[in-house]
Design a protein that fits this description.
single chain, 4-stranded mixed sheet, 5 helices, globular, signal
Length: about 190
């Protein structure tokens, strides 16, 4: 198996493959993290999307300043749909600016995971296993090596298809495996030009 640091080098495709709206990640050793705009092993788990830490940007208000001066910095994934809302701006991170590390929580009962950042209105948390995140990183890294530099006219770019897959994943209210399948199907359908 590839080391995690090599897998994290896959960049753009990983952003799409990880999808969004993950509430919690179960880690080995009976621990979990809540996905509340934090980083674990160089993966950013945002409240709306998940991506590599180096794919995060800072959210700014209409005036180009932080929404609340002195408040914690608002980190988002570069492809976050919020950035397309009129009035929202972004800027690249500067030296020393980084999302906080995710807090580790003890896992005593997998059915008793609670995160204050639970954003799902139906009350169901979208919980994934760290092994699934690693698998997606590995698959994305393998896919990066086979990408073609040119696309036929009229065909959507890999980035556009990746966004469609991410949106399909984010809209899904089923378990991780089903949401992952729907996201992948959306990407494959888009890449096939359907």
């Amino acid at each position: 198996m590839h080391s995690l640091s090599l897998l994290l080098g896959a960049a753009a495709a990983v952003n799409a493959m990880l999808g969004g709206k993950i509430d919690a990640v179960v880690l080995p050793g009976n621990q979990f993290i809540c996905a509340n705009d934090c980083v674990h092993k160089r993966v950013f788990f945002g409240t709306r999307a998940t991506c590599l830490e180096n794919e995060t940007v800072l959210l700014l208000g209409e005036n180009g300043q932080f929404s609340v001066p002195g408040s914690p910095l608002d980190f988002l994934c570069r492809e976050d749909p919020l950035l397309s809302v009129p009035g929202q701006r972004q800027r690249e991170r500067r030296a020393g600016e980084a999302p906080e590390q995710c807090g580790l929580h003890p896992l005593t009962d997998p059915n008793e995971i609670y995160c204050e950042s639970n954003r799902n209105p139906n009350g169901k948390l979208k919980i994934v296993q760290w092994a699934d995140v690693e698998k997606l990183l590995e698959e994305a890294a393998a896919g990066e090596g086979s990408s073609t530099p040119q696309q036929p006219p009229g065909q959507k770019s890999r980035e556009q298809c990746a966004r469609e897959g991410q949106q399909a994943f984010a809209k899904c209210d089923e378990g991780f495996a089903e949401c992952d399948r729907l996201g992948r199907a959306a990407i494959e359908s888009c890449l096939a030009g359907q």
